[in-house]
Amino acid sequence: MEPTGRDVRATYDRIAAHFARTREHAWPEVESFLDGREADTALDLGCGNGRHAELLASRARRVVGADASGGLLAEARTRARERAFEVELVQCDAARLPFADDSVDLAVYVATLHHLPTREARLDSLNELARVLGRDGVALVSAWSTAHDRFDREEGFDTTVDWTLPGGETVPRFYHIYSPEEFREDVAESALVPDDVSVSSGNCYAEVRGRKQ
Fold first, then answer.
1. Please, is 6 exposed, middle or buried when counting C-beta atoms within 10 Å of its C-beta (0-12, 13-18, 19+)?
2. What is the pTM of this model?
3. What separation in angstroms does the CA of 189 have from each of 25, 97, 152, 186, 199?
4. Parallel, antiparallel, or unpaired for β 157-164 and 170-177?
5. DSSP symbol at 93
6. Are 60 and 54 in contact (CB under 8 A)?
7. Which domains does the chain have, with CATH numbers?
8. CA-CA distances (angstroms) from residue 75 to 31, 88, 157, 167?
9. Predicted confidence (pLDDT) per residue in 98-118, tens digit
């Protein structure tokens, strides 16, 4: 079956190898968030090729990388082997996490929430993060924003952004482009407790804690 923009798993399976080659380094915002933090169990939700799982591995006793795409998990497995860091890799839906309540101390959830095709799924995913994170855990959540220079809109909207493979084939990727206010509202409506919500490099970021009382 041909992938559509809304079929995240099929889309990223198709582009996994090429995508991984263009995602070498951790985001500065993630490095800043993790600076000085340590954890027993850390989660990289939407781990892609494992670049942030690698960063977490130096700060946590156990690291779990989760992604919908088996192709990207294979790239993460290769990266972990080549760079000698430990990560447990799990294929799952970001809105239905196969992890126990309160099982994660530290998490990063970057550049993934915006791929979920409905607001219901995005809120479910934030609530799942809150469930597994627990009251004492902390996480960084990000999504692409209308604040980015390429967008000339103030309200959030759905779109597709093509990925061009070597040879010229294009693969559409679904995005929900958040307005900063909409992102703030979704985080606030979820079971997460926001400590700080900001915009950096065209992305919305939320530093959050686990479930509300």
1. middle
2. 0.94
3. 32, 19, 26, 5, 19
4. antiparallel
5. B
6. no
7. 8-209 (3.40.50.150)
8. 21, 13, 30, 21
9. 999 999 999 999 999 999 999
